[in-house]
Amino acid sequence: MRHPKQSSGFVLILALMVLVVAATVLTASARRVSSLALRAGAQQQEVQVRWGAESCQALCLSRAEAWLALPEGDEPVVSRSVDLKLGGIAFRVIVSDEQAKANVNRLWVLRGDSGVMAAVQHLQVGNTRPLQPRVQPDPTYLPGAAALLPFSSFEQVAAASRPSQLIDPAGSASLAGRMTLWGSGRINLRRAEPRVIREALDGILMEDEIAGVLMRRKLTPGAGLDVLLDETHIPRPRLVLVRQAVTDASQCHSAWVIARGATREWHRFYVAQEGPSANGPLRWRFTW
Predict the structure, then answer these.
(1) What separation in angstroms does the CA of 114 have from each of 15, 104, 109, 119, 185?
(2) pLDDT tens across 96-126, in order?
(3) Cβ neighbours of 36 (radius 10 Å)
(4) Which residues sit opposite 93 in a β-bridge?
(5) 232 and 216 Cβ atoms separated by less than 8 Å
(6) What share of the chain has pLDDT > 90, as a percent?
(7) DSSP state, residue 165
(8) How do 187-188 and 246-247 pair as beta strands?
(9) Which of 149, 152, 191, 263 is 20 to 30 A from 30, alpha carbon to alpha carbon?
(10) Which residues contact 223 (CB under 8 A, 6 or more apart)?
(11) What φ, ψ does residue 147 adopt, rounded to 5°?
(12) pTM to 2 decimals?
């Protein structure tokens, strides 16, 4: 009479083991399906961000100069921003005139490491969290090499751990709002901030001469170089240097695209340089 009882107990234990194994398999499968679903959702979001950012920059960069030329108050506009929503993701696009910013490569060639470090500090005045400057030019750079720049990344200029430290969506006090690594190096005298003009022309013009140029700009909005530099009484030898350092038109613009999802943020930075060059129009893209 004992054998049936032992057999029943064995069957019960076996059934319990089967149930445990089945539950484990089902749990693992559920986790795998959930992980795959999350991964698929993340990949879909990445695709949306990539194509959304490309669409934003294509639309905004092609209209950058006309957009920045629109009047806004008494001061020229260096940057403008627009908010868009594509596929449930919020995009902010900040379009800027890169030639209305102090050019790091030009400053370094003229003033060396200490000059760039000083400029980084001066141009971050007003930034609530200024970045620590550092100067790390490309070791392979050779003077006169048109295809290579001594500085081509903000990481070579300041210690930033996040892209949001480089740009201020609400203003221009940030490093990327007042400094650039691209363009001809000539500052757009019609559009740049007074602080940026002073930094770019330091050592070329006296403070009262810069104040005279800024006053002419305020009295004659949209005026070209000849009008801005007339009657400033700048000695001719220095006037020649000024004309080598400034321009009244820009051929380099950028679009900083910030995409915000439910749990994270993406940054894309696009730069377009038009005009004659050894390689034709130039384009740069940075992703975070």
Answers:
(1) 78, 12, 11, 9, 18
(2) 999 999 999 999 999 999 999 999 999 998 8
(3) 10
(4) 82, 257
(5) yes
(6) 54
(7) G
(8) parallel
(9) 263
(10) 190, 216, 217, 248
(11) -85, -5
(12) 0.81
